[in-house]
Amino acid sequence: MKALLLAAGKGTRLRPLTAHTPKCLVEVGGRPLLDYWLCDLYAAGALEFLINTHHLAETVRSYVTQHALTPAITLVHEEKLLGTAGTLLANSDFLKQGTTLVAHADNLCLCPWREFLAAHLSRPPETVMTMMTFRSSTPSECGIIEIDRNNIVQGFHEKVANPPGNLANAAVYLIEPELIEMIRRMKDAPNDLSTQVLPCLLGKIFTWENRQTLIDIGTPERLASAQEVANNRNLKCKQ
């Protein structure tokens, strides 16, 4: 397994904190968020990492070059943000040789990663990817999905007032090379995975529910929630 960690965002809702600190390097429990992703995924068997950069790219580069996993990490800089789908297409060579985890590295995500991978490897044959999901306490602020009895996505409801449930897209995916080819063949080249690509793949997305922790560190309030979780757990790096 490889991992593509999206770390280019500006984190505008966390300003002024993110004016000088990339969102992926905001500390939770005394550790940068990016460190959780690198350490936890490495422990689960990820041996290669690709990280895209844009906002405060040199700060991210400086952190990565001092990390214990530096030999396994490649950075790719985006002068102009490409969007999630655009980043996948731009780095198709990295993605074309097997299963790749794709995730936003500015969230706190704690779960049994090997179970997620095992679920993906045993997914129904008609599916091309596995989406991590979670139960949201604020479903109107999330992308809510509908699944069938086989845990395959049958509907999307993106930040609507009264969604039919609280099972949300965690924006953490395990994908196969064929997904990249499907995106490449789309008539209008998409730049956003969640809004432009996934709705075209109904019936082809398997899901796995994260029953532990998924917190989008997008606002000061959510950052405080993540700090509380981290303070109540031993979240040291296990590399």
Record the SSE blueprint.
Elements (H helix, E strand, L loop, with lengths): L1 E5 L10 H4 L6 E2 L2 E2 H11 L4 E6 L3 H9 L7 E5 L5 H8 L1 H4 L4 E5 L2 E4 L2 H9 L7 E7 L7 E5 L5 E6 L8 E9 L1 H8 L8 H5 L7 E5 L3 E4 L3 H12 L8
Parallel strand pairs: 1-4, 1-6, 4-5, 8-12
Antiparallel strand pairs: 2-3, 6-11, 7-13, 8-11, 9-10
Description:
The chain is of the alpha/beta class. The chain has one domain (2-132, 171-203, 211-231): Spore Coat Polysaccharide Biosynthesis Protein SpsA, Chain A (Alpha-Beta Complex). It contains nine helices and 13 strands. The strands form four sheets. It has a seven-stranded mixed β-sheet with strand order 5-4-1-6-11-8-12. The chain has a two-stranded antiparallel ribbon with strand order 2-3. A two-stranded antiparallel sheet has the order 7-13. The model has no long low-confidence stretch (mean pLDDT 91).
Gist?
The chain has 9 helices and 13 strands.
β-sheet strand percentage: 25-35%
Calculate Rg over CA atoms: 17 Å
Count every beta strand, where a strand is a DSSP E run of 2 or more residues.
13
The CATH architecture designation is Alpha-Beta Complex
SSE order: EHEEHEHEHHEEHEEEEHHEEH
Q: What is the fold named in CATH at topology level?
A: Spore Coat Polysaccharide Biosynthesis Protein SpsA, Chain A
Number of domains: 1
So what's the overall shape?
A: globular
The average pLDDT score comes to: 91
| Helical run tally | 9
- Name of the top-level CATH class: Alpha Beta
- Structural class estimated from helices and strands: alpha/beta
Largest sheet: 7 strands, mixed
Order of strands, widest sheet: 5-4-1-6-11-8-12
Query: Low-confidence stretches at least 5 residues in length (pLDDT < 50)?
Result: none
